[in-house]
Amino acid sequence: MKNYCHIIKKTIDEILLRKYRELTKDSLEKIIVEPVKDKSFGDIATNAALVLSKVLKKNPKELFFFLVPIISIKPMRLT
Hints:
- With about 80 residues, this protein is mostly helical.
- The protein has four helices and two strands.
- The protein has helices spanning about 1-20, 25-30, 50-55, 60-70; strands at about 35, 45.
- The chain has a two-stranded antiparallel sheet with strand order 1-2.
- The radius of gyration is 12 Å and the shape is globular.
């Protein structure tokens, strides 16, 4: 599972750097993607929307809706 989290993190970073030119690799280092502790909440958890909201001065909910399709991996079976 940790390997998938690494792949998802890398994908998020690449897409965000293309969309938001003002982001730097340093600002993305604070983003964490990890397996959830309670499986009833899904497969992965990330703080990306909250971290980015501070850097980009955008509503975290807006960023959340941008990120969901990126991290949605329904076609893959993770477990």
